[in-house]
Every structure is written in structure tokens, then in C-alpha cells.
Amino acid sequence: MSIAGVSCPDCGYAATTLRSCLYIAPSPFHHLFGSHTSREEISAARPQLRIFTDAVRGELYDVEARVARLRQSLQAAKQHLAQAKRVLNAHVMLNSPKPFSIFEAEPQMPWLLGQVCRHWRALAWQTPTLWNSFEGRDHIVYNDYYGTRLEEVLNRSGNSALRVSLEGLAPNRARILARHAPRLLELELRCWFETLSEFKDAPELSILTKLSLTVQYAYDTTPPGARAL
């Protein structure tokens, strides 16, 4: 910065008002831009000017080549970073807390993972072991959304063994679960007698190692809001 009445120590420029001073080194041909330069001087300087221009152009080409190489290196680094991110994401998801709650209104694992980005969603949707251990309370017996949610989870669990803990499972949802009986490794049900009867024609529980049943005799189809207090 220069102040009125004070000369710049670099270029000798003195501003009349407060303003920025930018020093630019003079070119070898600065004298040619004067108003008294003759044509002879300009003609004599043309060969040197052409050499200077070619040299500057060559330096610019070198700079552009360096920038191109830097861009390639940056692109390669981005690809390696993306790959590392996918591996890390898979590790995080495979070690996510289990079991998850299947019937909650708020998004739960692993649905939350699918909301991060498309890469996370693709990994979550294609990792069966994220979906094979779940729990929940089926307290809205007339809501078909619960059946859709249960089918979604069971389909995404692929062929992996299932660990299931459900309370108040409605008969229509029990029929969905019964179709996957051969994959049930652990099953805990707190349900009505009508719900349990849906498993009578289910395929064999061939790999079941843990079973816990709490059965209530009567199945109450009364909507929760209409029940007597």
C-alpha cells in the first residue's frame, strides 16, 4: 500500500490517494511501446521479439503439460480414495449394531446407511448379513405396510440365516415369515395362538438352534384406539 506523498520503495510510484501498488517487472521490449519509437527500431527488434515469444510459448506449453499431469494424478487419487471409501463403508456396515428394529417409524439401520449416498445404498442393499437379524413389535394389526416392510427385509437378507425376535406378530405377517422357515436360526415369538398356527404348514425348521415362544390364546383384532381402558 502507498499513502499520498510517499513513494513506493519498489517502483518509485507515488499515489495521490490511498490505493494498492502492484509492481510488474518491465519486459525486454518495454522501450518499444513509447510514443517516439521509430519503425526502424521496431523492425530491428522483431527477430528478438519472435525468439522471446517462442520461448514464452514453450514455457506455457510446459506449464500446460504439468497441469495436465497434475490433473491425471488428482483423478487417480480420487479413484483410490473412492475405492478406499467403499471398502471402509463395507467394513462399517458389516459391523453395524444388530439386531435392528424393523417396524419403527423412524429410519433404522440399515436403512440409515442407504440415506448417506448412492454408494452406501448400493452396498447396504447388496449385503444380506445386514438384514438377517431383526426385532420388532407388530402392534398395528391392520397396517399392510408392516407386511411390506417384513417382505423387504427378508428378501434383502438373501439366503443368510435369520435371527428374529418379534412381539405381537399378526397372522398375515406370520405367513410371510413362515415361507422363510428353513433359514430361521434363532426365533423368538410373543404372539397369539392364531399367529402360531400359521407355521403348521411351513417348511422344516432345519437349522433352528434357538426357539422361544410366548403364546396368548385369543387374537385381538380390535384397533388400539378402540380398545377399552
Polypeptide structure, described:
This protein is α/β, with parallel strands linked by helices and 229 residues long. It has six helices and five strands. Helix 6 links the parallel strand 4 and strand 5. The radius of gyration is 38 Å and the shape is rod-shaped. The N terminus and C terminus are likely disordered.
Key attributes of the depicted protein:
alpha/beta; single chain; 5-stranded parallel sheet; disordered N terminus; rod-shaped; 229 residues
Q: Report the end-to-end length measured between terminal Cα atoms.
A: 82 Å
Largest sheet: 5 strands, parallel
Radius of gyration: 38 Å
Task: Count all strands and give the number.
Answer: 5
Task: Provide the helix percentage.
Answer: 40-55%
Strand order of the largest sheet: 1-2-3-4-5
The percentage of residues in β strands lies in 5-15%
Shape by Cα distribution: rod-shaped
Q: Report the mean per-residue pLDDT as an integer.
A: 75
- Count every helix, treating DSSP H or I runs of 4 or more residues as helices: 6
> Helices and strands: which structural class?
alpha/beta
Order of helices and strands: HEHHEHEHEHE
Low-confidence runs (pLDDT<50, min 5 residues)?
1-5, 15-24, 223-229
Explain briefly what this protein structure is.
The chain is an alpha/beta fold and 229 residues long. The protein has helices at 39-94, 111-114, 118-125, 144-156, 171-178, 193-197; strands at 100-101, 133-137, 162-167, 184-192, 210-216.
